[in-house]
Amino acid sequence: MARGRFIALEGGEGAGKSTQAALLSAWLDSLGVPHLVTREPGGTPVGEAVRSVVLERTDLEMPAQSELFLYLASRAAFVDQVVRPALAAGRTVIADRFNLSTMAYQGYGRGLDLEEVRRAVALATGGLEPDLTIFFDVPVGQGVDRQRKGGLEPDRMEREGASFMQRVRDGYLALARTEPKVRIVSATGSPEEVHENVRRLLVAELPETFRLDTV
Q1: Could you tell me what percentage of the chain is helix, strand and coil, using 3-state DSSP and rounding each to the nearest 5?
Q2: Could you give the number of structural domains in the chain?
């Protein structure tokens, strides 16, 4: 059985990752591609417990290093219990966040040494990397407006403010220039327009899996 594909969806707050994950899942269903849509932190009991601490506990203040290690504790379980088994079974994995988030948020956003963060990430994942990471780019102000109009209560990270979110966005853009399997898709259009661009990107980058006649 052929190994499945691993695609990570990344972006700042209000970039529409969850919407794009749902649209991508519907497309894969129509193609008959076996797949799994999941999120990180989350996807496992350990991950969901970590998520409740690092995102939902808005009253908590913690050192950046503590935040990093909590995320990576979730990721180690996520890779071992979700991603590797699904890929081995030939399923395509669509993950809402993965390694690039850690480098953008804890590296650029929190100011931790990027190479130390990278080494910690590699330890947590056993070196597993997505076949393709899609960064949905949206200006910080537009992303915040989307969150506000959606009536969503800001989580602990979103409460860090515009300057933090701008550092995160700048980090994503810098990483997209240096990481070989990261591609940028503008998230400023309608969900349908963004999804169409995602389809075309997948055909271009992973032609063995996504053929021209599937766009």
Answers
A1: 55, 15, 30
A2: 1
Cα angle for residues 160, 163, 164 (degrees, 5° grid): 45
Q: How sure is the predictor about 199, in pLDDT bands with cuts at 50, 70 and 90? A: very high
Cβ neighbours for 55, distance < 8 A, ≥ 6 positions apart: 41, 155, 156, 157
Range of the domain at 40: 6-214
Strand, coil or helix: 37 = strand
Q: Answer yes or no: is 84 within a domain.
A: yes
Whether the predicted model's global pTM rises above the 0.90 cut: yes
Amino acid at 80: D
Residue 1 lies in a domain: no
- CATH number, domain containing residue 191: 3.40.50.300
Beta strands 35-39 and 92-96, pairing class: parallel
